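Researcher: Please predict.
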Amino acid sequence: MSTARTTPAIVHPLPGRGRNLWLATLAFAITFWAWNEIGPLGIRYAQDLELTPTQTSILVAVPVLVGSLGRIVTGVLTDRYGGRSMFTLFIAISAVPLILVMWAGSIGSYVMLLIFGFLLGIAGTTFAIGVPFVNAWYDASKRGFATGVFGMGMGGTALSAFFTPRMVQWFGYATTHIIMAVALLVLAGVVWVFMRDSPAWRPNTDKVLPKLAAAGRLAITWQMSFLYAVAFGGFVAFSTYLPTYLNTVYGYELADAGTRTAGFAVAAVVARPFGGILSDRFGPARVLMFVLSGTAVMAVVIALVPPPELLAGASFVIMGVLLAAGAGAVFAWVAQRAPQARVGTITGMVGAAGGLGGFFPPLLMGATYSPETGGYAIGLGLLCATAVAAVFFTYIVSHAPKDEG
């Protein structure tokens, strides 16, 4: 017999919800910074270890794998143990693979970098903790806003892209990783002391496999998984692979490529809450169809290699805005339609799909790169086709019957 209980309706603002929302956003941002620690240094690793484009793309993409699949387990555990305990534990644990990545890079071992980069993906699982955590603090009419604000934590990729290469220049490679590891441990302490689970939250103590099976039987789980794989997966793919792309296509060095990647990610951070806010007002389906159509257009524009700085920069910024707004709209849709007792589980599964959506494009970009056929035109063409398909899929889903439980 299930011991899950339905979260009570929130009839008035809960005291402390703003503090907890911003603490969750901060935790998400810093763990995302750690998760993306390898991507901004991809150029350095490629040069030091004499890597091919395919090897570099694999190295950059590997942390995304655990950060994706791990969200399934993390989401289930959050339903059971709550966001405060889960945030504290996973933030602290993330410091360990970060130090191991530092060691692997210091000895110049590509294999060890792959192994410990894989484990570093743990830091990327915190997304599946935050969504059910903030959902429980807000009523249904404000959950698009809440998940949108929380989603700003993906700006950790911008922080990493901008600061990680510069910190390596200022302090050295090893010291940079040590500083980040210490920051994670301090953050874990702050979260444990100041964060609280919502009084409206109730633990779901269903067994894990039946809980996953129940979420898997809901159409919304798979519908939102596909859409999030396109929107958030596209963002992750760009934010992790963009430094390498800018170096290959435009010749920017490590710090310059990192600065431009940070601009892309900052634009996305600003845009993501608007995806949720606009979804609260106009409906997530309309927002998604608009931004996915724009994504298809911008994929073509970027494939044509617009000249630097203004046109190329504007193209990547617009792409970041569209993908982030789309990601915000997807989780506004999840918040509106998912059964409340299963939000964490569904969030984990949808978040995993989004992460996997970011895992394969860098591999594809590296594998299909060819100066003779327009550089990355094949990969960007596939992005365009996928976005167009997602527009039609969104229209179909918006007219499908809702899940009941």
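Model: The chain is about 80% helix and 0% strand.
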